[in-house]
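User: Can you model how adenosine-5'-diphosphate sits in this protein?
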Amino acid sequence: DVLVAGDVFLDLVFAGVDGVPRPGTEVRARDFGIAPGGIANQAIASRRLGLSVSMCSAIGDDAAGSWCREILSNEGVDLSFVVAAAQTSATASLAVEGDRAMVTWDAPRPADSAAPFRDLGDPKSIILYLDGREIGGDEMRTAITRGAKVFADVAWDAGETWRRDTLEALAGCHAFLPNAVEAMAYTGTEDPHRALSVLAETIPVAVVTQGAAGAIAVDSLTGESAAVAGVPVRAVDTTGAGDVFVSGFVAATEWGLSLRDRLELASLAAALSTTRVTGSLSAPTLDDIAAWRRA
Ligand code: ADP
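Assistant: Here's the modeled complex, given as structure tokens:
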């Protein structure tokens, strides 16, 4: 069982954009998708990998929020621990030649959106999606004391706002899975391998994802280290790739796989998700993964 905790966004994804618009100009997208994003990415991706998923979040009491709830519930995500916020946060994501630019709207949260989190049962794994405001905060401390494996993932821009001293708070997590840009900013290093070594000094399972180049990881609990190359796919939109990666890693951890096999499943799930627009609704099912392996 997996509990996902963090913010849900409504993602508007514009793929195949020639550049970022400057004031007074317009750019056209070749493809477009709309989907629940943020922690909804990990929720839906984990469900599609066969895990049972509950969500702890605040979702807006508006049209966007109702739509996100409907999609999540159709995917089989348990929403009993979701509280109502006035509005749903939103992201416009522009996929520009393999990279992306984003505009986000962080809706104000209810005073204590983490409250239901304290009453939950005993999930095997908890996925925490954090931004600079939450590190070492209530949700994280409560999660760590639950006895479940806590997998922490960070928001896209968190590297800029995070400080090294928060590594101590993260050390109580089972695993931390930032992308290379975040990992380097966070550890004050200029090389993903160096960033991984610094993270591995304090965090039991440290993973650094490197986009199309794959991922590297150290599991200090088993003494394994592993690296996988990116899976060659025709990527149209990398929104949520890191989130799908986390879900793959969590699923493979629950199945008791080796570090290398955990990285392989995570990379394959993430790579397949880049072949279609949006993060959550492009997440592959177990059947999609089996079909890729047979081909
Ligand atoms: P984030 O999405 O959090 O910024 P990354 O860009 O590192 O993180 O992507 C996460 C993972 O998604 C990578 O480790 C890789 O497995 C997969 N991935 C991302 N982009 C591609 C791509 N263009 N081709 C294949 N796999 C990709």
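A couple of observations from the model: The chain has a mean pLDDT of 90. The chain is about 30% helix and 25% strand.
User: Helpful, thanks.
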